[in-house]
């Protein structure tokens, strides 16, 4: 008899039924494509094949004769993003690991990888969401060579992981695995970083003091250590069975990191069609895996950005999930961890306290995750991920996690931080939006106040500096949706709104834009759909309208009579910083709840 929680079973069954036709069509296409390309030497004429291994040096003969599996590497390396800097050294190492098991590896292609931390509050942020489609397309270009038997995906950060997954899923007859490089060591305490940011917003700290503080936080190679979108990505990939177990939060350039990388390559060589343990990506990423990803996100208080990314990568696999599903799961999934910005410790503290292995074990015991899934790892489904990696001498091994090493960071399902996962759907005559409650105190779950309407986050900052927001206020920032300007994160508003809240005012944000994975203590209704551009309800609001945002009742509404108003005029499309050449993505994008993707919309997925 199944011990699945009724909500998990109900939501999963609903997703399976809703996705029946699209999932069947996807699997049929993958079956056909896999059959067509199952013999890569026969599929490629000799001239084509010779082009593909001309520069393979010592691996040329092995690739030419198909002596063993050939692993394609899709890399998002650059050395501007700290998380991706280690990947510069990966291809030569991965090739060595492949040769250890009679395989070969080639870099199939590269994708862009932008950092929301660098572009936050700047024009480049308006390219951010659509970089996910670009990454998916770039991954598709690399894999279109049909030279490969499996795929190693080198990417960690915000749009990179969803983009790599979306692109790779269209080549889902190939086994694929993410190979993370891990987080940087911990820097200054997160509360100190937050304190200096707010002082700077108030004009009480200099730019030099702010930069010194930020540099002590973001200080070396590896992922930023707060639990934002990048590290939430890593959590989800483990819950979907797309990492070696426990690989997410092992720091770069350590012996354990190296052995996990080696194990990933060895595994990619073992799970190809030619072996006896074939695990194509299309079969690993199924409805249960998508639900597991959502549950892991909710149980750990992960990034709100994934309310957009989960529907997008699920669609690439023919699976349809929406915010109602996420909200219903959130009501059943307890919050098991508090990682900054939801707590004081970072992902290194989380990992040392038991980390993902502990969370997976607790979810499985509570019937809140599907154990019976196909993963890239062992034979025991998700149970293989309820353990932690370690070095037994020089050998990689996995062991039981045991109890939480820090109850302020990580708790069992029987004694959670809160009873729900902290991501709620709010809706009403202003549309549908997401409200992340896991970092908001319960006395701020309901905010009702006159609104002040803006069409740009810089206008908010100016009004703050001019003292115009020193009151109870709901700040509405509209024309920030996918079709308006690419749906930028508005994380730069966090210090401003935090200052107002700390002064004792009742403050909230309502926007059709995104907040950061690092959004925190200020109540916010984000991703509001339908977006303002095109006549969405936010385009009808006026300064002074009473707006109510309530996480408890799931309400996002105004008492104003919107039926008698005409939509406000949207700002003209911005140009510069390449925004004009992304116009095709804005024109073609669909709503945030569907994933905000122009690529998927154009493909009819």
Automatic annotation (TrEMBL):
Q: Pathway membership of this protein?
A: Carbohydrate metabolism; Entner-Doudoroff pathway
Q: Which Pfam family, an example, fits this chain?
A: ILV_EDD_C
Q: Detail which positions bind [4Fe-4S] cluster.
A: 157, 224
Task: Name the reaction it catalyses.
Answer: 6-phospho-D-gluconate = 2-dehydro-3-deoxy-6-phospho-D-gluconate + H2O
List each copy of the Dihydroxy-acid/6-phosphogluconate dehydratase C-terminal domain by range: 409-595
This protein's GO CC annotations: cytosol
Q: Which organism is it from?
A: Alteraurantiacibacter aquimixticola
InterPro entries found in the cross-reference section:
6-phosphgluc_deHydtase (IPR004786), Dihydro-acid_dehy_C (IPR042096), DiOHA_6PGluconate_deHydtase_CS (IPR020558), ILV_EDD_C (IPR056740), ILV_EDD_N (IPR000581), IlvD/EDD_N (IPR037237)
Name under which the protein is recorded: Phosphogluconate dehydratase
User: Keyword Nucleotide-binding: yes or no?
Assistant: no
The GO annotation for biological process reads: D-gluconate metabolic process; Entner-Doudoroff pathway through 6-phosphogluconate
Enzyme Commission number(s)? 4.2.1.12
Which one of the record's GO molecular function terms can you name? Answer: metal ion binding
* Swiss-Prot/TrEMBL keywords: 4Fe-4S, Carbohydrate metabolism, Gluconate utilization, Iron, Iron-sulfur, Lyase, Metal-binding
Any binding details for the cofactor? Binds 1 [4Fe-4S] cluster.
Role summary: Catalyzes the dehydration of 6-phospho-D-gluconate to 2-dehydro-3-deoxy-6-phospho-D-gluconate.
Q: Which cofactor does it need?
A: [4Fe-4S] cluster
Family under the similarity heading: Belongs to the IlvD/Edd family.
Could you tell me which PROSITE patterns the record lists for this protein? ILVD_EDD_1 (PS00886), ILVD_EDD_2 (PS00887)
The keyword Lyase is assigned to this record: yes
- Gene encoding the protein: edd
Q: Which residues form the Dihydroxy-acid/6-phosphogluconate dehydratase N-terminal domain?
A: 69-379
């Amino acid at each position: 008899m199944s011990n699945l929680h009724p909500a998990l079973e109900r939501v999963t069954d609903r997703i399976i039924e809703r996705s029946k036709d699209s999932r069947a069509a996807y699997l049929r296409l993958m079956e056909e494509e896999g059959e067509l390309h199952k013999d890569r030497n026969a599929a490629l004429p000799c001239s084509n094949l010779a082009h593909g291994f001309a520069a393979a040096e010592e691996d040329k003969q092995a690739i030419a004769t198909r002596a063993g599996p050939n692993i394609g590497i899709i890399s998002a390396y650059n050395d501007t993003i700290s998380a991706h800097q280690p990947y510069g050294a990966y291809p030569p190492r991965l090739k060595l690991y492949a040769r250890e098991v009679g395989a070969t590896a080639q870099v199939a292609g590269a994708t862009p990888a932008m950092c929301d931390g660098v572009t936050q509050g700047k024009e480049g942020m308006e390219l951010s969401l659509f970089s996910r489609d670009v990454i998916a397309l770039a991954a598709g270009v690399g894999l279109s060579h049909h030279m490969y038997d499996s795929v190693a995906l080198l990417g960690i950060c915000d749009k990179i992981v969803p983009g790599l997954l979306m692109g790779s899923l269209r080549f889902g007859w190939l086994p694929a695995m993410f190979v993370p490089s891990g987080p940087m060591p911990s820097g200054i305490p997160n509360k100190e970083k937050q304190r200096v940011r707010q002082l700077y917003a108030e004009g009480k700290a200099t730019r030099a003091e702010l930069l010194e503080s930020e540099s002590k936080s973001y200080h070396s190679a590896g992922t930023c250590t707060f639990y934002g979108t990048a590290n939430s990505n890593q959590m989800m990939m483990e819950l979907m069975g797309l990492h070696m177990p426990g690989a997410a939060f092992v720091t770069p350039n350590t012996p354990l990191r190296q052995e996990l990388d080696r194990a990933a390559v060895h595994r990619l060589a073992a799970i190809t069609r030619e072996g006896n343990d074939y695990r194509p990506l299309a079969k690993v990423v199924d409805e249960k895996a998508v639900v597991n990803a959502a549950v892991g996100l909710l149980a750990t208080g992960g990034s709100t950005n994934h309310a957009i990314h989960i529907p997008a990568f699920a669609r690439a696999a023919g699976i349809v999930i929406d915010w109602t599903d996420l909200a219903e799961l959130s009501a059943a999934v307890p919050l098991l961890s508090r990682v900054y910005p939801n707590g004081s410790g970072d992902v290194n503290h989380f990992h040392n306290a038991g980390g993902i292995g502990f969370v997976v074990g607790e979810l499985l015991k509570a019937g809140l995750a599907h154990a019976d899934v196909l993963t890239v790892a062992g034979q025991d489904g998700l149970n293989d991920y309820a353990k932690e990696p370690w070095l037994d001498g020089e050998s990689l091994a996995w062991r039981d996690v045991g109890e939480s090493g820090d109850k302020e960071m990580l708790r069992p399902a029987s004694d959670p931080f809160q009873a729900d996962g902290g991501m709620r759907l709010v809706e009403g005559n202003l549309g549908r939006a997401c409200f992340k409650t896991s970092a908001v105190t319960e006395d701020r779950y309901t905010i009702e106040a006159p609104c002040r309407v803006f069409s740009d986050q810089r206008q908010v900052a100016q009004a703050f500096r001019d003292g115009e927001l020193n009151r109870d206020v709901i700040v509405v920032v509209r024309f920030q949706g996918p079709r308006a300007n690419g749906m930028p994160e508005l994380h730069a508003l966090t210090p401003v709104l935090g200052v107002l809240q700390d002064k004792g005012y009742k403050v909230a944000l309502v926007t059709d834009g995104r907040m950061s994975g690092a959004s925190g203590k200020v109540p916010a209704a984000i991703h509001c759909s339908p977006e303002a551009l095109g006549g969405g309800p936010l385009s009808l609001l006026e300064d002074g309208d009473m707006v109510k945002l309530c996480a408890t009742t799931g309400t996002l509404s105004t008492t104003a009579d919107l039926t008698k108003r005409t939509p406000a005029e949207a700002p003209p499309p911005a140009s510069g910083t390449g925004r004009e050449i992304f116009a095709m993505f804005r024109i073609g994008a669909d709503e945030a709840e569907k994933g905000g993707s122009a690529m998927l919309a154009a493909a009819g997925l």
